[in-house]
Fold this sequence. Notes:
By secondary structure, the chain is an alpha/beta fold. The chain is 29% helix and 24% strand.
Amino acid sequence: MKDIDYMRRALELAKMGEGFVSPNPMVGAVIVRDGMIIGEGYHECYGGLHAERNALKDCREKGYDPEGATMYVSLEPCCHYGKTPPCTESIIESRIARVVIACLDVNPLVAGKGAEILRKNGIEVEVGLMEEESSYLNRVFIKYMSTKLPYLVMKYAMTADGKIATSKGESKWITGDKARERVHGLRKSLSGIMVGVSTVIADDPSLDCRLQEEARDPVRIICDSNLRTPLDAKVVTTARTITTVIATAADDRDRIAEYENRGCKVLQLPRTDKGVDLKVLMAKLGEMGIDSILLEGGATINYSALESRIVDEVHIHIAPKLFGGSGKSPVEGAGISDINDAVRLKPAAAYWAGEDLIIENEVLY
């Protein structure tokens, strides 16, 4: 096997932490000596051992000595005290001879310092192997660490002729079980889920994560300019179980108190001509530690989010169905008049989920 094969394995391990390590990055580590993997590990949960320490632990539990070995790690080892001691210390103490790093950490507490500490202690360090893949894996962490703003993924399901509902407004279910399972995987991996109040009124969704495996529920964020969310809506009645944030531009203290008495957190925000100021909302949610959001709203909030330039990715689920007629499209609002002003998408991945096609796109502003 070659260096790239071991790093690819480190990235595979890193992804196993998806949905459990936020706001930390996903990291995997592999220890190799004489062409054999003698230890591997990944960051399994927030507050738990980092990938490097788990790999060293695995190595010793298998009866191997890591002295003189090479460690492949998908992100630069930390060099500061946080929930756990610095990983650089454990690497130095283990007498690892060489460390291959995919990507430097953007955290200013690390940001090249970890690699430099290893070099100063006589360890050969190489940086940049599969850097693009590592950066993509941790794109949520990189944006949040760099800007303190959540990474926002817009998702919608539509028919092959671009409809999100029938002429009578029916939308359950456009896509099949496999695609909906993928959506719950997104809910597991991202910190928050956001919809507009019209979705709450029309569908009364739970906005939770329904996977057979262990998974946390995302923070629920309701954009409700005029406080129209019904007090008996599921997102309100379960607010003491699953964190629910209502973002509003209203100043009705009595109405706000009704939500707060039921366990909701109400954010009062500036009003724009399209509702709550979404840019201000993103800043507030970032301050709350919400590093990523799945936008599962309707056509109106989708347009507002794109116009506000807060969307980082668009996931399009396409069902092999045709509705015809004048049903809603996924993005409405005022629309653009000049074709050159279109929001540009860069496809990042495409795959089948059962009979439905899913296309994941980066938004280019």
